[in-house]
């Protein structure tokens, strides 16, 4: 249904984490506010979020976790090769703890705070997951009188003399169009991970990339901003979730909870390329974005497992605690049954063979036998002189049957394409704000990174979604005097 009124102080495009945080902030300040959500349900990828970044939050204080914000800023700038916008990142970092406290004051509970893999201890894990946060924000916004409409998308920003004056809306259910008047628009559409053409601007060969998003992050915010005169800013970073089972027949998220996926990616024994050659230290997955980048350096990638590895994962558990894994059971109790099911279903991504030679022949990997013989020598030496993988991860591949799982690269979100100032106002290519146009969440989060997502600062996109939604509203209120 189209919105009730024809004129609002503020229209927020996108009912995900950033849009709903902005909605609550606008409600707190009594702005007449409309939230447009193109999907039938609210929350976007915010529904799947594990946790949000914060420094100096109430929880960190309770647990005596002290972080030197200056050192962290320097670390992130180095990680991004100074492509991150230091001014904006600094504002976000200094507000981030208060953002966690604000969420807590609304009723959001956090089950823990800490690092993910080798990272800063910044991720505040939501008790009940992202979905619980979405529900709290929605209820709060509605209680303030914010109007939220589903199945309505924003199609175009309307401007007069360069100022925002309204939006063109489309009813996704009926195909009808309507205009609504407003002088303030916040774009919070979730970035562009589900738009293959935009992803291609960042990574030209997309055939092995698999989005684990809900499919609605189609880069609408970028298109709307660019049409309105925004700078075509750097396409930023794609948040790779490391390796993922290469299955083009189902949505990628289906495999996320699979123990076979964890065995082949998070707990990878040996990765080889299209020739059967090893190409990286497989424990690169301590940083899932680095793992994704490494897998993309090859044309095809396979994870090799032998029966000994499967027995070990099943009966003993992980070889090495790996951060960022959505699957971290002590023991992989379902691994064998998942393998049997997938073989019975003739899934293309899984190949079984009695010998290494046979596995190499089946997959046309001419160097596989030689690679494994050499790799086994390294495991005997106890030192990976080729790529420097940690010793506790050097496990020989000797016991049949042998398995190969073909891998693609999972993507959670894509950030970049829009430049904003410290008021979250969208900038043109001269660095001046487009009056009345703001961007928040993934649409603006490219400001925080270089070409690699800042997994060193876990929870940073969710934290930024809440920060930037709220920051945009604060700016609108200040500008309104
Ligand atoms: C599986 C998964 C797990 C993740 N876990 C984490 C995590 O633990 N920590 C973290 O920091 N980040 C995580 N992320 C990243 C996540 O994308 C962001 O943190 C967060 O959801 C970004 O908020 P957003 O509001 O920008 O986008 P979203 O929450 O995705 O919301 C965007 C909304 O805009 C709507 N929309 C799009 N176009 C239009 C249009 N034209 N008109 C109207 N509405 C529109 C969409 O339908 C969607 O509802 C995860 C992502 C995924 C996919």
Question: Mind sketching the topology for me?
Answer:
Blueprint: E1 7-8, E2 10-13, H1 17-28, E3 33-36, E4 51-53, H2 58-62, H3 69-79, H4 86-106, E5 110-114, E6 123-126, H5 129-143, E7 147-149, E8 152-160, E9 163-171, E10 177-182, E11 185-187, H6 196-202, E12 209-211, H7 220-227, E13 237-245, H8 259-264, E14 270-273, H9 288-296, E15 301-306, H10 307-315, H11 335-344, E16 350-353, H12 356-363, H13 368-381, E17 402-415, E18 425-427, E19 433-439, H14 460-480
Parallel strand pairs: 1-10, 2-3, 2-11, 3-7, 11-19, 12-17
Antiparallel strand pairs: 4-6, 5-6, 8-9, 9-10, 13-17, 14-15, 15-17, 16-17, 18-19
Helix pairs in contact: 1-5, 1-14, 4-14
The structure holds flavin-adenine dinucleotide.
Describe the protein.
The structure is a single chain. With 481 residues, the protein is an alpha/beta fold. It has two domains: 7-236 and 416-480, 3-Layer(bba) Sandwich (FAD/NAD(P)-binding domain); 240-411, Flavocytochrome C3, Chain A, domain 1, CATH 3.90.700.10. It is 32% helix and 21% strand. The protein has 14 helices and 19 strands. The chain has helices at residues 17-28, 58-62, 69-79, 86-106, 129-143, 196-202, 220-227, 259-264, 288-296, 307-315, 335-344, 356-363, 368-381, 460-480; strands spanning 7-8, 10-13, 33-36, 51-53, 110-114, 123-126, 147-149, 152-160, 163-171, 177-182, 185-187, 209-211, 237-245, 270-273, 301-306, 350-353, 402-415, 425-427, 433-439. A six-stranded mixed β-sheet has the order 7-3-2-11-19-18, with helices on both faces. Strands 12, 13, 14, 15, 16 and 17 form a six-stranded mixed β-sheet that branches. A hairpin with a 2-residue loop joins strand 8 (152-160) and strand 9. The model has no long low-confidence stretch (mean pLDDT 95). Flavin-adenine dinucleotide binds next to helix 1, strand 4, strand 8, strand 17 and helix 14. This is FAD-binding protein. Keywords: FAD, Flavoprotein, Oxidoreductase. Its cofactor is FAD.
